[in-house]
Amino acid sequence: MVSETHGIGATEQTQNHILEAAGILFEQYGYRKTTIEEIAQEAKIGKGTVYLYFKSKEEIGMAWLATLHSHIYEELEQIAKSDISPDKKIYEMLLKRIDLRFEVFTRHRRSMDEALSTLKELCRVRREDFHRREAALIADVIRDGIEKGEMIASDPDVVGGSMVLATNALLPYSMSPQQLGDYGTVMTRADNLVSLLVQAIVMRKGINS
């Protein structure tokens, strides 16, 4: 049984355990049918302990979705910190933000469909926060490219935001069920779009020289 005492690292550990248990149940029974009591049972802790960390099932649902995004952001951050050139970083980051979401959406299709539907307004606000973080990360890479004389952009923040906005059209929750079923076609379109976006800011010989 998971310890219900609070100590160094215990709070985060218990929160993560609750979210893991919630994710399992969301997949098995769907978000709507899952109860706080069932989450507590799955996590092998008392129901009251769950409420010490989360005020409601909605809060658990939002935290669970945030955890899924944090994994995506960490992958993008790794690319941003890699040794490849700025243009390749942006290409890989934009493509990866689409690919990883398809991977997550496919793995958690039922639970995400219900959670996104039930928590629609909350998800919209949180999703915008996620996208802003990704845009800021891309903008930092663009700044690095400008400093190295490899890119041109009057406002990296605006360009980063525009790149995220453009590729949002190919994210799973922006597509119809029919489109979602054709992953290969989606990623081909993504590759074409991302290539155009990157080419638009890459410094070429003869430009502004």
Q: What is the CATH topology assignment of the largest domain? A: Tetracycline Repressor, domain 2
Query: H/E element string?
Result: HHHHHHHHHH
**Residues in β-strands, percent:** under 5%
Specify the number of helices: 10
Secondary structure category? mainly alpha
Largest sheet, described in full? none
Using only CA atoms, what is the Rg?
20 Å
Descriptive key words:
disordered N terminus, 73% helix, 0% strand, Tetracycline Repressor, domain 2, 10 helices, mainly alpha, 2 domains, 209 residues, elongated, Arc Repressor Mutant, subunit A
How would you characterize this protein structure?
There is one protein chain. The protein has helices at 10-29, 36-43, 47-53, 57-80, 86-107, 109-118, 120-147, 156-168, 177-180, 183-199. Helix content is 73%, strand content 0%. The N and C termini lie far apart (67 Å). It is mostly helical and 209 residues long. The radius of gyration is 20 Å and the shape is elongated.
Give a summary of the structure in a few sentences:
The chain is mostly helical.
Secondary-structure map:
Elements: H1 10-29, H2 36-43, H3 47-53, H4 57-80, H5 86-107, H6 109-118, H7 120-147, H8 156-168, H9 177-180, H10 183-199
